Amino acid sequence: MTAGLDFENWTCPVPLRDTPTVVMGHGGGGAMSAELVEHLFLPAYGPAVQGDSAVVPVGAERIAFSTDSYVVKPMFFPGGSIGDLAVNGTVNDLAMSGATPLYLSVAFILQEGTPLAEIGRIAAAVGAAARAAGVRVVTGDTKVVDNGSGDGVYLNTAGVGLVAAGVDIGAHRAAAGDAVLISGDIGVHGVAVMSVREGLEFDTTVVSDSAPLHGLVAAMLGTGADIHTLRDPTRGGVAASLNEIARAGAVGVELAEPALPIPAAVADACSLLGLDPLQVANEGKLLAFVPSAEADTVLAAMRAHPHGAGARQIGTCVAEHPGMVVARTALGGTRVVNMPIGEQLPRIC
Question: What is the model's pTM?
Answer without folding.
Answer: 0.88
